[in-house]
Amino acid sequence: MQKKIFRSICFTVLASMIFFVVTVLCIAYKFYLDEAETELKTIVALITKADYSDEEIVEILESSVDYDIRYTRVDKDGNVLFDNNYDASRLDNHIDRQEISEALNNGKGASTRRSTTAGTVNYYVAVSDGESVIRLSRDVRGMLSLFLGVVPVVICIAGIVMIVATLVSMKLSESAIRPIQKLVTNLDVLNEEQQYDVEYEELEPIVEAMKRLSARLSKYISRLKTEKETITLITENMVEGMIILDEKRDILSVNKSAISYLNPKFELNTQANILQLTRNANLTEAIDKTDEKDFANGIIATAEHQLRFFVNKIDVNGVKGYMILLIDATESLRAEEIRKDFSANVSHELKTPLTTIKGFGEMLENGIITAPEDIKKYGGTIYRESERLLQLINDIIRLSEIEEMSADDSVTNVNLLKTANDVCEILQPKADSHGISLFVSGERFDISANQSYISELMLNLVDNSIKYNNPGGHVWIEIKKKGNNAVIKVKDDGIGISEKHQKRIFERFYRVDKSRSKQTGGTGLGLSIVKHIASYHHGSVNLESSSGEGTTVTVTIPIAQVGMI
Questions:
Q1: Which parts of the chain have pLDDT scores under 50?
Q2: Which of 88, 123, 181, 345 has the most CB atoms within 10 Å of its CB?
Q3: First vs last Cα of the chain: how many Å apart?
């Protein structure tokens, strides 16, 4: 406000000074031209009454005035008879000159124009004496230069006035604004009981109104602050993500959960649009749908989460926007997917041997198979399929037990090196039948674990290395310590696993080569059991393999188990 007042005063003074200076200069210049015109006319009038020759007249003019005057005499036909500045014989006819023409017709004439002879702007006065026309002229630029000589003085005076006016305006604006600035400075501490002195009585009603308004605002702001802190505390500690958008889909509020779900690098420092937080097509399309039906929902898939979202349109008392709620459904959707896959896989795995058993049993019942060797052959098939079915059911039960088991007295001190040797002793006949050599090496130490589970873990790993090996292949079992962890490494030089299968190899019922798995009696649950046993012991499983170059499975388990799950 102070600057505005200062600028207004300065602009007014400046405009007034410019107008004054221009007006004075114009009036002075006009007065000067009038004086020059009067002077030339007087000189012409005197010359026409005197009986002097042209040369005498020129001499008188040069001695009488301190500026250049051009003297010209023209006859009735416009021919130049005499000119003090130019050779008269070389000058063209002047009958068409305005001042000459007027003098011939009216006795007198005057004009201001550019001289075709001199090329300058001149003021001309001409008088006819009956026989000829006497003309005097003066360079207007010369008059202007004389006049402009006083302009710097006028400008200096105007500048001084402007400086003084500026200083005065600064002081005036400061004195006018100071009480208001003081009032604004004390605005935060004003209350209805406080006495406040003002310099201008015109400000007293404003002070009283501001006191009342300040009191109401303080109460209102305090209430809003409390409500905001409560809402912020709730939303920031919500597991669910919450986003509130305005009508233009700019973000009004977003909690930490929503940011962590959609874009952990996002920072809401300034106004941002929902597209800066996420460009997920499902979400943006759902927001579009709410413009028609006020509600929409769907699923967002990120790298780490499966999110269910619900979008509601807000339109209350003219306030429009959108509210988005994000719920992490990763585990529930994954569990649902696992349940569906498990049901489908179990049904398929159980159906195959049961179909075989049912078919051959029906053939035996109906007497289709009668030859003793056929009965023995198909009976053996029924037996093997029954064994496979029993093994599959046992693996499923075992997997369920591992998943549901919690910490109990089954945790004991387990010697891993001894367990590895026991496993190799159990599987040695199977290894010999396949021409596979088993090797055990490592350190002898104990860990806190479930002996049965650790034995089963090693049995599954070594059994897989034997099944999926080449004749004459090798299997190495290594036991060692690494910090506070025990490392069980089972390595073979068998057929290996291609990279595209490695991400799914620990899924239930997943088999790289289904035909080979059936030949070897695999159920597709061995590595899944290994993974669950490692997780039960707070450990991890890592697989390294290349097709045709063998496989290495490394299991890492803490030596001391605390709080078994």
A1: 407, 409, 514-521, 562-565
A2: 123
A3: 71
CA 434 centroid distance within chain: 63
d(CA 477, CA 459): 11
Whole-angstrom Cα distance, residue 494 to residue 474? 8
| Alpha helix stretches (DSSP H) within 186-249 | 204-236
Residue 441's pLDDT is what? 92
The SS3 assignment for 268 reads: coil
* Shared fold status for 2-148 and 238-328: yes
- Residue environment code for 241-263, b if the CB has 16+ CB neighbours within 10 A, otherwise e: bbbebeeeeebeebbebbbebbb
- pTM reported for the whole predicted model: 0.39
What pLDDT score was predicted for residue 261?
83
CA-to-CA distance for 530 and 528, rounded, in angstroms? 5
The two structure tokens encoding residue 113: 């124009």
- What are the structure tokens assigned to 95, written together? 């009958």
Asked whether 526 and 512 are in contact (CB, 8 A), the reply is no
Eight-class DSSP state of 246? E
In which element (H, E) is residue 511 found? none
What is the reported pLDDT for 417? 92
Which neighbouring-strand residues pair with 441? 478
Owner of token pair 């030859």: 371
Mode of pairing for the β-strands spanning 474-482 and 437-442: parallel
List the one residue out of 287, 312, 316 whose CA is nearest residue 300.
Answer: 287
Please state which of the four CATH numbers 2.60.40.1120, 1.10.340.30, 1.10.287.130, 2.30.30.40 is assigned to the domain occupying 333-403.
1.10.287.130
Of 174, 77, 70, which Cα lies nearest the Cα of 119?
70
Closest C-alpha among 543, 356, 347 to residue 464:
543
| Coil, helix or strand at residue 106 | helix
CA 193-199-200 angle, 5° bins: 100
